[in-house]
């Protein structure tokens, strides 16, 4: 059984990024253990906390450390990832030398309500994951444009072709992850 952590880069209730994650998770094996790692309540990272971290930091780091692989879904905010997602990356990679992301296979999927499909956020996130030492699945690339039409706000993918594609992405990521176990 593989443990998959899911980090949704949007903290909005009924976010399209969460629906995107749900679509990918649908393609994972039935025995996969999936944990959505919540990032909304993480205080802004501050190096002053390294010596005495808030309990919420410690709990989040422990949750990340317990996963075998991580699925990241992100919206695009001002041509980048959300502040909440960047903060989560920082929290779990610190204090220096205690990066709990390291070595975990990663999948990056982005979405946008526009036609640009979050492509820039996707690549910004990939840059950070490279530094965090996370082997990242390269193909298929996952960019969902016009997410307001393709991804429903009730947690279900609204478009059948998109749902099938995302399920296939989940299956491909499972095979990619097994290369590292």
TrEMBL record:
GO cellular component: cytosol
InterPro entries according to UniProt: Flavoprotein-like_sf, FMN_Rdtase-like_dom, NAD(P)H-dep_reductase
Superkingdom as given in the UniProt entry: Bacteria
One of the Pfam families matching this protein, by short name: FMN_red
Residues spanning the membrane: none
Stored PANTHER family: CHROMATE REDUCTASE, NAD(P)H-DEPENDENT FMN REDUCTASE LOT6
Protein name as catalogued: NAD(P)H-dependent oxidoreductase
Native organism: Jeotgalibaca porci
